[in-house]
Amino acid sequence: MNGVVMRDIEPSGLAAACRELLAAGGRMQMAYAWFPGRRGEAEVRYLASAEPRRPFQMWRVQSGAPESIPSLATIAPLLEWHEREMMDLTGVRVIDHPQPYRLVLHEGVVLDTPPLDPQHHAQGMLAVEAEDLGIMPEVEGEHVQLLPFGPIRADVLESAQFLFQYVGEGILHYHPRLFFKHRGMEKRFEGRSPELGVLLAERISGVDSAAHALAFSQAVEGAAGCEVPPRARWLRVIAAELERIYNHLHYLGHLCHTTTLKVGEAQGKLLEERAKQTNARVSGSRFLRNVIVPGGVRRDLALAGLLGAIDGLRREFREYVELLQRTDSHLDRLITTGPLDRALAFDLGATGPIERASGLDRDLRRDHPYAAYDELPPAIAQHDAGDANARMQVRIAELEASFDVVLRAVTGCPAGALRTPLTPPAPGEGLGWAEGTRGTLFYAVHFDEAGRLARVKIESPSFSNWRVFPYTVHDSNMMDYAINEASFGLTIAGCDR
User: Strand 439-447 and strand 292-293: pairing?
Assistant: First the structure.
């Protein structure tokens, strides 16, 4: 794999390797299983990162027969969801897992074979048997109540169910149940060409289309040994930062909605709309789709007029932020709400603005630069408070940095080719990554002997941050819940896939 040091590890050596990595300041990133050569024997992969600017580590583990590996969740808690997902979708058994409940496939779902097993065939409607959830702790007390909220919620919110155990306004315990609309997107990549694969990647999460297309394309390019032309690399940066701008503006408007600051909500969403209109003029798509493809970009961006548009948007944004920062009724609802300390953010795998608001200084654009970020390094925003206000302040600073990067990229963008012809390896594998609006995004791709995609693993930032979020809800109160959730900027589609 490109940018990766491969390492073969026996199942019995996993725990020691994980402890060694963490002791050296490294971090686990994800785990997944796949079936090489369409055989029935699974191979488990772990992705880990060490110091900035050093290659990622990919651990390769043969699960053996019967397929089983020891759980690492008690050593690296962020792997807990990855291991549960692996059990659901591939059938690999994870021994001594601390929470061996289903994650992606809900309780009672009956399958002949796991969905990602080579022997699996679509079976139409899923068979479901009644089964006790077994996921909520027993809480005794005369006034303790259980509130199941969702999965059908008001407005246009995505489907999810939130279980609250509470007394009065105080939340004792909270459990989110996601994956009601799991679409099997990783399965859909199987047998596809890279050209079709990038269209699927753009539709994992509509608001992160450019980031998904970029990470997927870079994984394919790494597998094929393809060098992207300089102009295409700079145009990719412009698209990625334009996506960050409109997402963060939406975030500020939605956060105002939860604090009932209606004028702030309207102004933030108006700025978001202007940013999307700029995207449409530059790329032909409000969501920056059909721009990034394996090998480069599909077409040139219409950069004429972008400098003026960004300058104008930046001026309005600064006026907007100045008003937000002077609105005590807004800030009072954010300060001390949903605190997440640095150690918990690291252990549970928080990423993007969430981890940087809790004092972790990590950003793939700087630590593992891609596209043209080596030549266009952004200022990395950071805060130590770890509360909802800190998460807002990090995004405000990131908006300023994104405006700056776009202006520099448009001014200095080199001329030249837009795309390099690419021949998929047969077989081969590659790793791609991007620092999306919500955090780190990884794609691991595997090709078969015909040059078609055999396995695509997606580690999305919302999958990581939904894992973290409940720990900021326990012992909080109902009045602050919506504000806290909005401050995380989560997407359910990006998590469920």
Answer: unpaired
